[in-house]
Amino acid sequence: MKSIIPNSLTALNLFCGCFSVLAFLENDYYLGVVLIFISATADFFDGFLARLLNVQSELGKQLDSLADMISFGFVPGVIIYKALLEPIDCNESYLSEISNQNWIPMVGFILTVFSGFRLAKFNIDKRQSNSFIGLPTPACTLFFLTIPLIWINENPDEWAYKLTLNKPLIISFTLFFSYLLIAELPLLALKFKGFSLNENKFRYALLFTGVTTVIILKYLAIPIILSLYILLSLLENIINSK
């Protein structure tokens, strides 16, 4: 019966991911962002509670990957798809937008395909019990979530908003992050098996710096936090290898 608790959180992750796809396609970016943050929170705590309650199972593992494929695989593909549509107008309906588009927005779903490879690789890779090999799909999604956050909060004449309309830049980021998802790059896993400072110093450093950066820069802190995540991971690998 205890397994119902983490599995329910995984189901919440999946439900919010499905709902967020509809929200983004209908230009309700605020709702889409909120739903993905709920998915990310549920994704973090389902594994934590499964370990805490000692109810880890193959069912939970597979269900978690299936949920992540929607929330952190399909959703970022949809966000990039929307970013590559021309023009971007938060008040224009999806159906009227799509009629004049070509194949370019479909590039966004390259990230979805590589997310699928990433999640399948994670399920069979025994090396990833305490750390990640390649960029986790939730981290990748949070990076691209910056795009709708900018649409919500910035004016079209602001530099950040203009960057989200730069198609070569968006495509470059899509291809780069697709590579990071499957790269043989050891990265820090935010899986707390305890709360010891010595065992979790890099995790605490990431959380503290992340919260501080968010307070100062708000949603624009996300790319900075992700860069810090990769740097701290590399630093941990260097120290552990000595």
The major pleated sheet works out as: 2 strands, antiparallel
CATH superfamily: CDP-alcohol phosphotransferase transmembrane (TM) domain
Which CATH-level-2 architecture? Up-down Bundle
CATH class: Mainly Alpha
Secondary structure class reads mainly alpha
Overall number of strands: 2
**Estimated helix fraction:** over 70%
Q: What is the averaged pLDDT score?
A: 84
Could you say what the CATH topology is called? Four Helix Bundle (Hemerythrin (Met), subunit A)
What is the helix/strand order? HHHHHEHHHHEHH
Strand content: under 5%
Note poorly predicted spans: 88-92, 94-99
Summarize the structure in words.
The chain is an all-alpha fold. The chain has one domain (4-88, 104-190): Four Helix Bundle (Hemerythrin (Met), subunit A) (Up-down Bundle). Helices cover 70% and strands 2% of the residues. The chain contains eleven helices and two strands, in the order αααααβααααβαα. It has a two-stranded antiparallel sheet with strand order 1-2. Helix 3 packs antiparallel against helix 5 and helix 10 (201-217) packs antiparallel against helix 11. Mean pLDDT is 84; it is low at 88-92 and 94-99.
